[in-house]
Amino acid sequence: xxxxxxxxxxxxxxxxxxxxxxxxxxxxxxxxxxxxxxxxxxxxxxxxxxxxxxxxxxxxxxxxxxxxxxxxxxxxxxxxxxxxxxxxxxxx
Length: 92
Hints:
Layout: H1 2-15, H2 23-48, E1 54-55, E2 62-65, E3 83-85
Antiparallel strand pairs: 1-2, 2-3
Helix pairs in contact: 1-2
């Protein structure tokens, strides 16, 4: 998805005359800012489990990323699980 968003922006920046300034710079800057915002919101919704979620191996529903401090790892475990199923609660 990142490539699909950045490919047209790269083409726009490559074909726009930035040396002249004015509208070309504003157009390229706006395109880069818009692409950055779209990628930011896409990654945030992926981590929550709305856009292209990781699928649970048990029930097939989307998984969401656990927040720091949400789960405590058991004694002797290296780290807390990073993903949790929104339906059955399976940890991965």
